[in-house]
Design goal:
The complex is a heterodimer of chains A (361) and B (322).
Chain A (H helix, E strand, L loop, with lengths): L8 E7 L5 E6 L9 H16 L6 E3 L4 E7 L3 E7 L6 H19 L1 H5 L4 H8 L3 H8 L6 H4 L2 E2 L6 H14 L4 E6 L2 E5 L8 H13 L5 E8 L3 E14 L2 E7 L5 H13 L3 H9 L18 E5 L4 E5 L16 H19 L18
Parallel strand pairs in A: 6-13
Antiparallel strand pairs in A: 1-2, 1-5, 3-4, 4-5, 7-8, 7-11, 9-10, 10-11, 12-13
Helix pairs in contact in A: 2-5, 2-8, 7-9
Chain B lengths: L10 H28 L1 H7 L1 H14 L16 H7 L3 E2 L2 E2 L17 E11 L5 H9 L13 E11 L6 E11 L1 H6 L3 H6 L4 E7 L3 H5 L1 H8 L7 E7 L11 H11 L3 E3 L16 H27 L17
Classes of the chains: A alpha+beta (361), B alpha/beta (322).
Chain lengths: 361, 322
């Protein structure tokens, strides 16, 4: 396992029945391909246990943590991490996110009843960008908390009202306004989707290449894993998309030409303002103690969170700041992991209300 | 307009057309020169291919001469540069959201003409790459099939030749993956709904994509008589590995009588930061495609409005003149 020593984090996906590798990704994009023998032995040891009714979930070598997870007896995911802050909680959630990202894009049916491995391999390429976004160090916390990151906009009520009307006009109940992968406002129904779905949709839109609009088939991993819905996205300004989840109608053309301009053009300024709060996640007018460098606030009931490591506006003027943004991210994520795995052991999505704010320095 | 052609097809008009076509051929020499200026860098590389290009463009000229509707080198004039600055800022292409517009200086004004363009072609010919290149975005390095439909808006200012009016073309490209097209019934109708043009793509490095063109055209373009149809050969940068010859192209054009454009879908030079794509260099690579598109779209509009007679665009019966 020394091969993966310097690599950081590697992810392998195989079919459970035959052990055929479907893809492998590593932190930093394409990266180094793991030797087939390593992949084979990692899968072999898991399969060996399986045959003896022993479930192998995780192991550690001197510097690497390995976690296995099997989904629907059809897909096996293996992750190896040599990073210090990779907890079991994070690695397990990573694998869970990755599998559900695959469901979101190609559908559960194709993953459970694999008829043509080569075809599946080709189809799975469409998830690479989304999966890679989970592997890169991000400014969001949704991958760890499985609650979508939100921004608190300047003109929330106006945006909310417009979104509700726009979504209704597009013959849907599911609408969401996103800025760089974070939810600005969403309709009531959107919040009733499973927490992971809300998070995955936000990450999906953020991971796709720059486009004016899209008509993207999605399989909601929890609500509708076999029947696809249409996710319509419209880029209002670069970085801000409005999304609608709908059935066979209306057409992309219709919504784009008849509704987008009409509803959103008058709101150009509030929409652009969403980008200004992006790094801080909430308006500058919000009072905050000087000592707080970053915070993570989670509402477990509504399954959403606010996360930032740049809580102070005029911060670069303070010379004494010693923690880099990476260190802050690591500290905050470690604190969350510790809190959830030590003090909220029922963390599988059903603790009543967890509030984790970290006061650094 | 085409259906009106036969009754007025008298000897007089034949004579007129013959003169016109002769004039077009004479004009071709001039066109070739300007075309070469455009692709001067290609010519350096291509050498022998350029000779063939002259022959190829002769056929193309029978449809719509590049530069007959718009002024092709206008972007290099000071006025053109002023317009270009609305889509290129600090040598970087600007990308506009759906509720944004290019902002022009107050003293210049221009109308915007919107067009929907459906990009069709076999899997992996480079539809997404072409659209990215036209928009000045990063051309994807690794290929994967496009999921669903994705649209990209490209603004392109041009100067009309007859009225000397500047018009901003808002070209919206509709791109979808071949697998998606087959899997979901709503995709093809959605792409064709109110489309103004269909681009048929083939790859210079994939012979089968070229052979598939007739199939594509008859499948996708049925009942779309008044839509602009243009064939685009992608991956022209890999001419060393070209699987399609100029002779094939000439023959294809004789049969199908569709305008043909060539496209290099690779990332151009980058700015000094080594990251951002050079906006102006990128535009220089694709301006002939954008101009060609704008020209055909505008001409088609004029035809539909009855403002021009379809003399330049040779009707099918015309083949005996060539």
């Amino acid at each position: 396992m020394e091969e993966s020593g310097g690599c950081g984090l590697s992810l392998i996906c195989l079919t459970a029945s035959s052990g055929v590798p479907l893809y492998s990704r590593s932190r930093g994009g394409i990266g180094r391909q793991l030797p087939f023998s390593v992949i084979g032995s990692l899968n072999g040891v898991h399969m060996f246990g399986n045959n003896l009714d022993v479930l192998l979930t995780a192991t550690s070598t001197e510097n690497t943590r390995v976690v296995w997870k099997s989904f629907h007896d059809s897909i096996n995911l293996i992750v190896m991490s040599s990073e210090v802050d990779s907890s079991d909680l994070y690695l397990n959630r990573l694998l869970d996110n990755v599998f559900h990202a695959m469901v979101l894009v190609v559908g559960l049916e194709e993953l459970v009843n694999i008829k043509n491995v080569e075809r599946l391999k080709k189809d799975l390429r469409a998830c690479y960008r989304l999966i890679d976004s989970f592997l890169t160090v991000s400014e969001k916390s949704g991958d760890l908390t499985q609650c979508v990151d939100c921004v608190v906009p300047y003109d929330g009520p106006i945006l909310q009202e417009c979104l509700d009307a726009f979504t209704h006009a597009a013959e849907s109940n599911f609408g969401c306004l996103m800025a760089a992968g974070r939810v600005v406002v969403a309709t009531e129904k959107w919040w009733r989707l499973a927490a992971q779905e809300v998070m995955l949709l936000a990450w999906l839109v953020a991971s796709l290449a720059l486009n004016s609009s899209r008509d993207y088939p999605v399989y909601l991993p929890h609500g509708s894993p076999t029947v696809p819905h249409r996710l319509l996205t419209f880029q209002l300004v670069p970085g801000v998309d409005v999304c609608v989840l709908c059935g066979p109608t209306p057409s992309l053309q219709k919504v784009e030409t008849e509704l987008v301009e009409r509803y959103w053009r008058p709101l150009q300024d509030p929409v652009k303002a969403c980008l200004r709060v992006q790094l801080r996640s909430f308006p500058a007018s919000f009072p905050l103690h000087q000592g707080i460098l970053g915070l993570l606030l989670i509402n477990r009931e509504q399954k959403k969170g606010v996360y930032t490591v740049q809580a102070q506006q005029a911060e670069d003027k303070q010379q004494g700041v010693s923690l880099s943004l990476e260190q802050r991210r690591a500290a905050l994520r470690a604190f969350y992991t510790l809190a959830v795995s030590q003090y909220f052991p029922s963390e599988q999505g059903d603790e009543k209300k967890g509030k984790a704010a970290s006061k650094l320095e | 307009m085409k259906s009106d052609a036969p009754p007025i097809w008298t000897w007089k008009s034949r004579l007129r057309d013959a003169v016109l076509i002769l004039a077009l051929y004479l004009g071709e020499v001039g066109f070739c020169l300007s075309y070469k200026l455009y692709t001067a860098r290609d010519c350096l590389n291509l050498g022998r291919l350029c000779v063939a290009e002259r022959r190829g463009s002769g056929v193309m000229a029978a449809f719509l001469m590049p530069g007959s509707v718009i002024i092709t080198d206008w972007h290099r004039s000071s006025e053109g540069k002023e317009f270009l600055s609305s889509i290129v800022r600090k040598n970087k292409r600007k990308f506009f959201g759906l509720i944004e517009r290019p902002v022009l200086p107050p003293q210049v004004a221009a109308d915007t003409a919107c067009y929907k363009i459906f990009v069709s072609g076999k899997s992996s010919v480079g539809k997404t790459a072409m659209v990215a290149k036209l928009a000045g975005l990063e051309v994807p390095v690794v290929h994967h099939e496009t999921t669903g439909i994705q649209t990209t808006t490209v603004y392109w200012p041009v100067k009309l030749r007859d009225t000397e009016r500047a018009v901003i073309f808002k070209l919206q490209f509709w791109d979808c993956g071949e697998a998606t097209l087959k899997k979901f019934d709503h995709i093809l109708p959605a792409c064709k709904e109110k489309a103004d043009a269909i681009l048929f793509l083939f790859s210079f490095t994939d012979r089968s994509s070229f052979d598939d063109l007739p199939n594509q055209i008859s499948r996708v373009a049925e009942e779309s008589e008044h839509i602009v149809k243009i064939v685009i050969g992608t991956k022209f940068d890999q001419y060393m590995h070209a699987d399609v010859t100029e002779r094939d192209l000439a023959e294809f054009q004789r049969t199908w009588r569709l305008p043909l454009l060539r496209m290099k879908s690779v990332n151009g030079p980058r700015l000094s930061d080594g990251q951002t794509l050079d906006g102006r260099a990128g535009l220089a690579d694709v301006s002939h495609v954008l101009n060609g598109l704008a020209e055909h779209l505008w001409h088609q509009d004029q035809l539909m409005a009855g403002l021009v007679v379809p003399a330049i665009q040779a009707p099918k019966e015309d083949s005996l003149y060539l």
